[in-house]
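In this supplementary section we document a worked example of the pipeline. Step one takes a protein sequence of length 299 as its only input; no multiple sequence alignment statistics are reported here. Step two produces a three-dimensional model, which step three serialises into structure tokens for compact storage. The input and output of this example are shown verbatim.
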Amino acid sequence: MKSKTNILIAGGTGFIGYHLAKRALKKGWLVTSISTKKPPAKRYIKQVKYILCDITNKISLKKYIRINFKYVVNLGGYVDHSNKKKTFKSHYLGCKNLAQIFLKNPPKAFIQMGSSVEYGKLKSPQKENEKCRPISVYGRAKLFASKYLIELYKKENFPSTILRLYLAYGPKQDLNRFLPIIINGCIKNKKFPCSAGNQFRDFINVNDVVNFIIQSLTNKNARGQIFNIGSGKPRKIRDIIEYVKKISKGGRPQFGKINLRKDEILKIYPSIRKAQKLIKWNPKISFEKGIKKTIKSYQ
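The serialised model returned by step three reads:
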């Protein structure tokens, strides 16, 4: 009898982890999540095996990970970046620990969720072959993790793939992110402060992110590669706020109440040509369709 495909998701209780777990279960896979906290009620899935463990603690990791996994996806790491030491440890050391645990019996694929902040101030469209110059501790931690895994692929043929994510959105996201804050304010017809909205950012629907992860897991062309995950179509922040306001039929954004940071980059978006060419991935969900569905889920 053929054994079921099993997947380990570090950070499986988070926003992307939840949507990935749902998709994996739909495919008939066995899903194990490892994270420092239990999932919030809105992201709890009965069929998922939840393990509570800090991936920065290698001894603890060894104790809990006793079986081999076909696929490993690392979405772990502290979301609050104010504690620089914790941020660096969770996003770099956590990744390193996970990879080392699987060195003797490697999975078919090991996906590391990187970040667009690895590029720092590089001009958009940002490309994977450019030399990164991160300006934050979080960006440096993500870049060190990327470099470590690519080196591991070259030396040990470890099946690493790095996905540099831009701004993901969709249902069940925490309310401390840009789009949920805007949607929540508009649904409740509240006043809320925002910048003048002259920045351009790239938003990608969580279902397109999950499609990318699944394609990367199952495509050998993804091994040893770094890919950008975004729509490749930057949108003006002010236009997004106005669109959410229109669909929600409410909201009183106070444009210009929040000043831009001195080092804030006005245009940030990726080139996605590499993903289109190597693994035949393309985002399928338009921003308009995705945002309408997201607003409906919050209502």
